[in-house]
Amino acid sequence: MGIYSKPVVFAIVSALVILTGTVVTVFIPMFLPSTQPVSAFVKPYTAIEQEGRDIYMREGCHNCHTQTVRPLRTEVLRYGEYSKAEEFAWDRPFLWGSRRTGPDLNRIGGKYPDSWHYRHMQSPQSMFTLSNMPPYAWLASNRLDTSDSFRKTEILGYGYTEEQVQQQLAEYKSKVTSAGYDSKETRDQVTPDALKGELTEMDAIIAYMQKLGRDVKAMEAKQ
Ligand code: HEC
After folding, report:
1. Chain centroid to CA 41
2. If you measure from the C-alpha of residue 133 to the centroid of ligand 1, how many angstroms do you get, rounded to a whole number?
3. What is the atom index within ligand 1 of the atom nearest the CA of 139?
């Protein structure tokens, strides 16, 4: 009867076979480049976007919003191109979420102008009477704390120097505080006087919103 009459040998041999199968089909592919696609279009977050991302997590936006468009016709029609693995290369942790009380945000970047977001963050109900998203008006009264910005990008491996981080923050600040900023009027309405010339937490979260899905849209535009 060979191996079938030797239960111990049979158990060891079958364990070895299953182990080999697991290594070959699960662990080896984990380290192959094809399972870790890299896209030249997907860029790490800038310092201001990273700060916005942290606020997004702090406020628990991911409890109501997902960040992944599934490859289903209904989703693609509603949100746009479905999410690709390489889009999340810089997401630590990823914020795919599992609940959609509000719509998916993976393609929100560029969908609306900044002014739309300022107004919506301040009072979702002023735009959609029945919205159950809480208002986040107070984010505009919080000066953005950038003291750890460089450290964050360093730990996450974005590869910026401290000067680059300071420059990104300064550039964004001069963009939103300049007289020519296209959403100046709305920003001024929601931001208290004392912070009009500063970066606020609301500025950061909007910068983050505008980044989501932008890289993929740029990729599609080039194809
Ligand atoms: C209690 C659940 C809830 C929470 C928490 C929540 N939202 Fe929402 N959100 C919604 C709902 C519902 C909508 C759809 C109605 C609307 O636009 O107000 C929405 C809409 C949005 C939209 C517009 C999406 C689109 O495609 O039109 C954005 C952007 C957004 N939320 C961002 C955020 C951010 C950023 C946070 C955290 C600071 C947040 N939300 C927290 C429920 C929530």
Report:
1. 15
2. 5
3. 38
Contact call for residues 65 and 100 (beta carbons, < 8 A): yes
Sign of torsion over alpha carbons 197, 201, 204, 210: negative
Residue nearest atom 5 of ligand 1, based on CA coordinates: 61
pLDDT per residue as tens digits for the range 43-97: 999 999 999 999 999 999 999 999 999 999 999 999 999 999 889 989 999 999 9
Structure tokens given for 30? 């984990």
Q: Atom 16, ligand 1: which residue's CA is nearest?
A: 131
Task: List all residues whose CB is within 6 A of at least one atom of ligand 1.
Answer: 56, 59-61, 63-65, 101-103, 105, 108, 111, 124, 128, 131-134, 136, 205, 209
200 touches 172 (CB < 8 A): no
CA of 134 to the centre of ligand 1 (A): 8
Question: What pLDDT shows up at residue 219?
Answer: 81
Instruction: Summarize pLDDT for 177-223 with one digit per residue, the tens.
Output: 999 999 999 999 999 999 999 999 999 999 999 999 998 888 888 77
Do the Cβ atoms of 143 and 173 come closer than 8 Å? no
Instruction: Output the six-digit token pair for 183.
Output: 């959403």
Instruction: Measure the CA dihedral 87/89/93/95, to 10°.
Output: 0
Shortest-distance Cα residue to atom 9 of ligand 1: 102
